[in-house]
Amino acid sequence: MVSAVSGVTAGYPVGSLDVLAEHPKKQEITSEEVVAAYIDRCKEVNTYVNAIVEPRYDAALREARSIDKMIASSQRSVEELQHENPAKKDADIIRQARAAGAIPIAVTNTPQLCMSWETYNNSALISAGASLIGLGSDIAGSLRLPPMFTGIYGHKPTPRLLSVEDFEEYFALGPITRYAEDLSLMLKVLKQPGSPEIPFDKPVDISKLKFYYMESDGSNVSDAIGPDVRRAMDMAREHIKRTYNIDVK
Predict the structure, then answer these.
(1) Which residues contact 169 (CB under 8 A, 6 or more apart)?
(2) Which of 22, 191, 202, 243 is the most exposed place for a label (fewest CB within 10 A)?
(3) CA–CA gap between residue 221 and residue 116 (Å, rounded)
């Protein structure tokens, strides 16, 4: 059973992309087993989160098996696998993600007219342990708010850092991840060739940053924060002030 393998808990794999990717490359666990575990988890949690609109389980398993065969045949070394992975022609960011070794397992929900910040979608699956990463689009918060509501991570990149081929220009495409450390990894993978280099791994001098917060935006489509969120914000403000001597405004 997959859950008996190191790096897999409660029947599905855990750990960041770097950690998980090492197991198939070292033949400690197969790509098919990893993908199958996530598919099982998708089936288990989708009853509750209703996030998947187009499963591609069979295709994902076929792709995983082809990678396992390539590894078993020793046609590629571990180093070569980091740079040469089977990929189909897709939208640019899908092609780039596939080229880095990603295997799509499902297409997930989008709210009607993209006019809601609901979480019956990619973020719900990732938060429920049914995937490590997802790709989405953002106009007013769709890459940021659902991850925030579900306890995971999303990032809206600088415009045109990632390709928006065949997308409306006012959209930004970007990653959603279960682990914060995978955001920078995904942005490196998805960054548009020729775009400016961004030092994702360079330490940030937090003392030079400014922090702002608000308890309500006065909008009729969203509520002011509740007591629990207010307490959490107060704790964060106090931590920033105490640790970095920065006033949060």
Answers:
(1) none
(2) 202
(3) 10
Kind of pairing, strands 52-55 and 153-154? unpaired
**Contact, 33 vs 2, CB < 8 A?**
yes
Rounded Cα distance, 77 and 249, in Å: 52
The sign one gets for the Cα dihedral 53, 46, 51, 166 is negative
| Predicted local confidence at residue 28, as pLDDT | 76
Report how many helices (DSSP H) and strands (DSSP E) the chain contains, helices first.
Answer: 9, 7
- Two tokens, residue 11: 């029947």
Better-predicted residue by pLDDT, 87 or 94: 94
CA distance 223 to 217: 8
Q: Is the pTM of this model over 0.70?
A: no
User: 2-200 belongs to which CATH class?
Assistant: alpha beta
| C-alpha to C-alpha distance for 22 and 78, rounded to whole angstroms | 9
Query: Shortest CA distance to 239 belongs to which of 215, 211, 208?
Result: 211
DSSP states of 2-23: GGGSTTEETTEE-S-HHHHHHH
Q: How far is Cα 181 from Cα 16, in angstroms, rounded to an integer?
A: 7
Q: How confident is the model at residue 59 (pLDDT cuts 50, 70, 90)?
A: very high
Closest CA to 156 of 141, 168, 146, 170: 141
Q: Which residues pair with 108 in a beta bridge?
A: 52
Q: What are the residue boundaries of the structural domains of the chain, listed by start?
A: 2-200, 203-249
- DSSP bridge partners of 106: 55
For residue 120, the one-letter residue type is: Y
Distance, CA of 99 to CA of 81 (rounded, Å): 10
1 pLDDT higher than 60:
no
* Spatial separation of the C-alpha atoms in residues 94 and 163, rounded to whole Å: 10
